[in-house]
Amino acid sequence: MAQTDTVTRILDTAEVLFAERGFAETSLRNITSKAKVNLAAVNYHFGSKKSLIQAVFARYLDPFTERFHAALDELEAKYQGEVIPLEELLETMARSVLEVPAERNSLKVFMKLLGLAYSQAQGHLRRYIQEHYGSVFTRFAALVRQATPDLPDAERFWRLHFMLGTVIFTLSGLDALRDIAEKDYGEHVSVRELIRRLRPVVVAGMNAPLPEPVGDALPAAG
Amino acid sequence: MAQTDTVTRILDTAEVLFAERGFAETSLRNITSKAKVNLAAVNYHFGSKKSLIQAVFARYLDPFTERFHAALDELEAKYQGEVIPLEELLETMARSVLEVPAERNSLKVFMKLLGLAYSQAQGHLRRYIQEHYGSVFTRFAALVRQATPDLPDAERFWRLHFMLGTVIFTLSGLDALRDIAEKDYGEHVSVRELIRRLRPVVVAGMNAPLPEPVGDALPAAG
DNA sequence: GTGGGACATAAACATTTGTTTTAAACATTA
DNA sequence: TAATGTTTAAAACAAATGTTTATGTCCCAC
């Protein structure tokens, strides 16, 4: 086995298994046996299972943040202080997200991992991501703010997260949904196809009219 | 300990712990010790951990489907064959979702569970839910179809899931989001508040213009 | 060539997991 | 009261988990 492709094989195998079954449900023995690597190699190279999980994310998020920053730089240069339209911002983000895993043909895995990062308890993960990659999102949020000056800050905050939910939820649960869709419509949807469908929905959601100020008819709930 | 409040205590404790930490991360010993109940009681009353998980869901979904069916009955009676407007349908669904856990003051738990049901691998759960509660959603989807006759079937299918993603993702990750929001804006958002904000976004998303037929500029991805 | 660092291997370790088993307590009915 | 079915209790079980150790192997600098 050449030098340290062991590390790569562990990461390659781990990300697939994590995406398929979740973190807690994937044992180190699952990973190492499928990767044809010794069990101890994980703790040797990564230190612990937690660190392995973070390393799996870093391999996606590091290139992503770099690319996304660069893309935003370009965009700011292009508009030279002018306000960047919302569509351009969303488009740029989508492109950045798509570019990275495209290199490794594993967008599906990336999306599943993102979904898990949000839903799964795994407190350490959310902290890790927020800590290491929060700055790009802050920058993005600031640009979105300029692009949507009529939106109250709180409203924009929530809508951004609504849209994030739409995208992550859809793309991370894609396999299951695709099964249903194929059964119902026979047509096989690609990720690009889905992105194409998502775009107008996301834009419309961001530009939706403001909610009525008060007094809806819904029942109270704790 | 009176007759079989053991079962109730197990369910009450299990749903909270499941919602907080996920299924795999919650051990039976966690549940039984916190519930002050013997370990063996779980296997005695429920048979297995899997069945316990399903029972936790059933306690929410059984009343929900019943209520939702009833609400749809009312709606159909009210409109007497006329097409039910989309807003009414969405409103009715929201109301039905909110009513059930409101009785037990645990909407947050319910939403977290829903999120887990989607994201977590747990194949048995998705199958269980689809099998036992799929019919209500089918009925709902048929009504939405009548309410949005201009939408191609496939488009409507995906948009419904987009919106489902928005709602579930937001409400299930609510605690984390709420923390951020409070830090940024100091304002504490209630669930009702969030629903009020969600509504126009969801409606706008469903009514968004159709996507451009082809040829977007996004890079290819597998 | 030899010593030393980097890595691989196999075995063992201590916990924790879900599940069973055995026995005792309880309640209900005859 | 005796007998029966139901529920709780404590302990034990086998399996699986993350992690560590001890040994072996390779390769490169000296």
Automatic annotation (TrEMBL), chains A, B:
Keywords assigned: DNA-binding
Residues in the DNA-binding region annotation: 27-46
All copies of domain HTH tetR-type, residue ranges: 4-64
Molecular functions (GO terms): DNA-binding transcription factor activity; transcription cis-regulatory region binding
Matches recorded under Pfam families: TetR_C_30, TetR_N
InterPro entries noted in UniProt: DNA-bd_HTH_TetR-type_CS, Homeodomain-like_sf, HTH-type_TetR-like_transc_reg, HTH_TetR, PsrA_TetR_C, Tet_transcr_reg_TetR-rel_C_sf
Family annotation (PANTHER family): HTH-TYPE TRANSCRIPTIONAL REGULATOR RUTR (PTHR30055), TRANSCRIPTIONAL REGULATORY PROTEIN (PTHR30055:SF235)
Protein name, UniProt field: TetR family transcriptional regulator
Biological source species: Litchfieldella anticariensis (strain DSM 16096 / CECT 5854 / CIP 108499 / LMG 22089 / FP35) (Halomonas anticariensis)
